[in-house]
Amino acid sequence: MSIADILDRKDVSWMDGSGPDSDIVISSRVRLARNLYKFPFPHLLNDTTGAEVMQQISQAVNRSKDKVIKGLELVTLDTLSALDRKILMEKHLISPEHAIASEPYRGLMVDKKGSLAVMINEEDHLRIQCLLSGLQLNQAYKYAQTVDDALEKLLDYAFSEKMGYLTACPTNVGTGMRASVMLHLPAMALANQISSVVQSITQVGLTVRGMYGEGTEAEGNLYQLSNQVTLGQTEEDIINNLWVITVQLATQERNLRERLQKEIKYQIEDKVMRSYGLLTNARLLTSAEALSLLSDVRMGIEMGILSPVKREVLNQLIVAINPSHVQKAAGRELEPRERDIKRAEIIKEKLLAS
Known about the structure:
Elements: H1 3-8, E1 25-34, H2 47-63, H3 67-70, E2 73-76, H4 82-90, H5 96-99, E3 107-110, E4 116-120, E5 126-133, H6 137-152, E6 159-160, E7 164-165, E8 177-184, H7 186-190, H8 194-202, E9 206-209, E10 222-227, H9 235-263, H10 265-281, H11 287-302, H12 311-320, H13 323-330, H14 336-353
Antiparallel strand pairs: 1-5, 1-8, 2-3, 3-4, 4-5, 6-7, 8-10, 9-10
């Protein structure tokens, strides 16, 4: 399977909805930031030094005997169209910043399932990530570490005995790890508890962002929860802290859903059914409106108000309604109004077929 297959597929690994606590936790991600010794950080690279970094990484991949490394395909971003790079971003395989880059020394390594991805010369020389369905932080760390260990045998990492792994952003110095979970918290939003939850979370060293990380707003009641600091903590500390808080939030969300169903049963059912009716009958849908309505429907399905729809389908729709995926489905570039029409068609077709 090649990068072309991942671009054409409706889903990648994190969308399958099979992981633990996947009624609340959409996905778990662990990302490791690494840099090569004696080379400038990516924002200071030029064509020559950037090519040298890419060459060292490519040679390491070719020399590695590790079966996980051998299962990764390496592509440079200049070989991908702007649309394809945006599709990879919408699938959460590269960052928004990497999606707008097209220099030949910037690249991506990815496995067949799209669960392992390595960005080359993004903010750091290497950003190794594993993305899995549900609450699987330990498994994601294990897979990411496998790639990290294999590459570290062949590459000279920038590492300080005092500070740990050296990174372009000071907040990543230390373990270089960013662990995160994507949560669906509609009941907390309905109960106006999100602000207090965010405030409490920041006090324990975590941060809350939108679906695509730093600089993005939460939409569709989807929140990305991650660690803020990597220095002075072990990888196990970071993962355990995030895991504990995630389990607490999942329990709180479930309890709130039960309470809402008892206290305002008909209002909740009406909200869910109206949203389902709009999604299966609307002729025009913006991405923001679609995410909001899909959030209501997902909640309704998990609460038993609507007939079951596979979580995989709902997770696929989170991605399929994004502008680049809509245009790829149409097979041509679309004006905003045309995208809204096509988006409504995609959602209706998927929901009625499931």
